[in-house]
Amino acid sequence: MNARSDRFTPLQRGLHWLMAAMILAMLFIGVGMVSTVSPRYWQLVSIHKPLGISLLLLVLIRLWQRWRHGAPPLPEDLPWWQRAAALASHVALYALMLAMPLIGWAMLSAAGYPIVLYGPLRLPPVLPQDAGLYTLLHRAHAALAYLLFLVILLHLGAALFHALIRRDGVLQSMAPWIRRPAA
Amino acid sequence: MPRSPTTMAAIRRLQPGRLTVIGTVLAVVAGSFAYAGGWLSPDRISPERVVNALSARGGNPVGHRRNHSKGICFTGQFEANGAGAGLSTASVLAAGRYPVTGRFAIATGDPAAPDASGRVRSMAIRIAAPNGQEWRSGMNNIPVFPVATVEAFYEQVLAARALPATGKPDPEALRAFAARHPEAAAFNQWARTAPWTTSFAEESYNSLNAFRFIDAAGLRRSVRWSMRATLPQAASSQEALARLGPDALEQDLETRLQAGPLRWHLVVTIAGPDDPTEDATRAWPADREQVDVGTLIVERAQDEATGPCRDINYDPLVLPTGIEPSADPILLARSPAYANSFTRREAEQGRAATGMAKPGDRS
Ligand code: HEM
Ligand code: HEM
Ligand code: HEM
Prior knowledge:
The complex is a heterodimer. Chain A is mainly alpha-helical. Chain A is 69% helix and 4% strand. Chain A is built from five helices and two strands, in the order αααββαα. In chain A, helix 1 (10-33) packs antiparallel against helix 2 (40-69) and helix 3 (80-110) runs antiparallel to helix 4 (131-166). The radius of gyration of chain A is 19 Å and the shape is elongated. The mean pLDDT of chain A is 94. Chain B is an alpha+beta fold. In chain B, 31% of the residues lie in helices and 22% in strands. In chain B, strands 1, 2, 3, 4, 5, 6, 7, 8, 9 and 10 form a ten-stranded antiparallel β-sheet that branches. In chain B, helix 3 crosses helix 9 (329-353). The longest helix of chain B has 25 residues, at 329-353. The complex binds protoporphyrin IX containing FE (HEM) (3 copies). One protoporphyrin IX containing FE binds next to helix 3, strand 2, strand 3, strand 4 and helix 4 of chain B. Residues 16, 20, 23-24, 66, 71-72, 74, 86, 90, 93-94, 97, 152, 155-156, 159, 170-171, 173-174 of chain A line the site of one protoporphyrin IX containing FE (HEM). Chain B: It comes from Belnapia rosea.
């Protein structure tokens, strides 16, 4: 963690917005594909797997960047409970971003499916085939996906709260191109 | 809301319009998510609904496949003769021997159904290549599928469901289905007239759905395939099969395998330019080019409860590179339905074993 700035590095910001779009897409694709028997299922699932594994690579880069560059400080006057909520939700978001793709990969392994990403690009299984493990992981993949969506909603609400109500520059730390409205 | 002075100051400064903006944004995001997940469209045919219908056709399928529920595992080899390598780059079509885990079954929702109650029989296979690629296929002994869409399939399952009072389907519902679905006529004709046999080994099994083979030059050809029996069919009847006992097909298979392996030829049929590739109710003309790509050698049979096929989902979209699904809506509906059935039965494994399953369950 070097000198603190009032915004994230360009790479951090780039990763944040790219991954935000990808994760929201993953959540929508996920719930869409498990609820349809239309030909869309095949298209969606064929996107879901490679996109999810790309997120695994991106989150590793992102955590490394976070460790190297840290994060800008939150506003001095932010009440303690909002600081705590910000910290807890960010930890939860990182944990879920890391866990979801790993669980997806492990779940397909435990089901005994070949893990096809694209064409001949395949992943090796990370677990032996096992009905109990598959069941556990399948439930975790769904439950944690809903939890992730919930935390993202709170996160989005908080970001808009900072931007529109507190107008304290927190949104600008991630989106510096947005003009900070006069308080 | 907490009452720290800064927050109170912030709230005092806030215009209600801004809070409304935040609320609206969150509601739109959450609402779109609910829409994508189908929670706002209860009429959407989800895999859950299809498999619920399949699970309620009499018998107790807890812990078992929700269709083709009664079956027996087998293991053996696929001996590719190399003739398929010109049509598809799939590694299992290159000349060589590849291990197979498969399953014979009757198309029923009841894992305890007598064999004579299953008009349709099936073979499912998983061929594994050394590079980790797999070819899974579920094939039926029928020449065409009764319906062309999953909507019609769902309707048919509901129409054919046994009434609690009689234990039989409502004839009125069946008539109404037949009237609405003339495309089922070819299948019905087969069901009425094709001979019954008393052996899985005397049947040929067809992919019914079309797929695409991709060759080394990237050329795509629409194909269907069949596992052709090498034994002649001894025509029998449903009554004769019933007299042989409820598990006659499984016993027959075990007896035959004690005498030696059984063989099928995997024959690939290449579509003509105008042949239907998105409609499994329509057969292709008999003169289409056919290529025998290898021999399936079935060596051993094993009960499903302890056999290697139990925990396999024979999802027809588990394909090696070199084979792609067609746009047949039935084919593309099978994958999500099989996944749903698979997820249920895997979760039920423990329950069936610890006696928590409902009475009537066989395992
Ligand atoms: C899929 C969605 C998203 C995920 C997974 C996500 C994740 C994260 C994480 C983990 C951080 C913490 C950065 C750190 O301290 O290391 C963060 C910060 C931030 N996010 Fe998101 N985010 C998402 C969507 C959004 C959206 C839609 C907005 C705004 C409209 C937003 C605005 C912000 C802002 C302003 C910060 C900076 C907070 C600070 O200064 O500490 N994020 N995001
Ligand atoms: C950020 C990463 C991911 C997110 C947010 C995500 C989200 C979801 C969601 C919301 C569902 C639907 C859950 C349900 O309602 O049952 C789902 C299902 C699924 N996901 Fe993911 N997923 C991620 C990564 C992955 C990865 C990496 C894989 C595999 C390589 C994967 C494979 C699957 C599969 C196969 C299903 C369908 C399960 C079924 O048949 O019921 N996911 N995912
Ligand atoms: C929309 C149409 C269809 C639906 C909804 C459907 C549904 C199902 C389901 C839920 C299973 C149980 C899967 C499992 O738990 O592993 C199954 C098994 C099977 N189906 Fe279908 N099916 C359809 C069409 C077809 C067609 C066209 C064929 C053609 C050849 C076919 C052949 C099989 C076979 C062979 C099995 C048994 C696989 C095994 O032995 O494990 N099905 N079907």
